[in-house]
């Protein structure tokens, strides 16, 4: 089992920034890929970014590339999502997820953290 706990969400004005954190605990995570997803009210959950625990390769949704940065701290077992130049359309619940590399199924999910961007 892998446990994921997000933090760092909040209310910000358009153009602002936040750093979201995902604390990871449980079984050894080196074989996992970590990801961030978001779900806005009335919309389906969408992929935001991903990073394997064992490499520096990153992947982003087109809508956030250049504004969001995913990273990890192996010593702290924490994954981060730096979100810059926020827009009202970025308002959503942001959730952390994990899957066993290279399987496609995201098997573990956190409860999410709310990000609200005011115009």
Write the layout of secondary structure elements.
Layout: E1 2-7, E2 10-13, E3 18-26, E4 32-39, E5 46-52, E6 59-60, E7 68-73, E8 78-83, E9 92-100, E10 108-109, E11 113-118
Parallel strand pairs: 2-11
Antiparallel strand pairs: 1-3, 3-8, 4-5, 4-9, 5-6, 7-8, 9-10, 9-11
User: Number of helical runs?
Assistant: 0
Main sheet characteristics: 7 strands, mixed
Helix-residue proportion: under 10%
Low-pLDDT stretches: none
Instruction: Label the structural class.
Output: mainly beta
Quaternary state reads single chain
Shape: globular
Instruction: Tally the beta strands.
Output: 11
Description:
With about 120 residues, this protein is mainly β. About 0% of the residues lie in helices and about 55% in strands. The chain contains no helices and eleven strands. The protein has strands at about 1-5, 10-15, 20-25, 30-40, 45-50, 60, 70-75, 80-85, 90-100, 110, 115-119. The strands form two sheets. Strands 2, 4, 5, 6, 9, 10 and 11 form a seven-stranded mixed sheet that branches. The chain has a four-stranded antiparallel sheet with strand order 1-3-8-7, with no helix packed on it. The protein is globular and about 40 Å long.
């Amino acid at each position: 089992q892998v446990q994921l706990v997000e933090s760092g969400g909040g209310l910000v004005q358009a153009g602002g920034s936040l750093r979201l954190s995902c604390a990871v605990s449980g079984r050894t995570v080196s074989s996992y890929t970590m990801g961030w997803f978001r779900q806005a009210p009335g919309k389906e959950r969408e992929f935001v970014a991903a990073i394997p625990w064992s490499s520096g390769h990153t992947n982003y949704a087109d809508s956030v590339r250049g504004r969001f940065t995913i990273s990890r701290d192996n010593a702290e077992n924490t994954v981060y999502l730096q979100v810059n130049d926020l827009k009202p359309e970025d308002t959503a619940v942001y959730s952390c997820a994990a899957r066993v590399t290279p399987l496609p199924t995201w098997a573990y999910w956190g409860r999410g953290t709310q990000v609200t961007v005011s115009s």
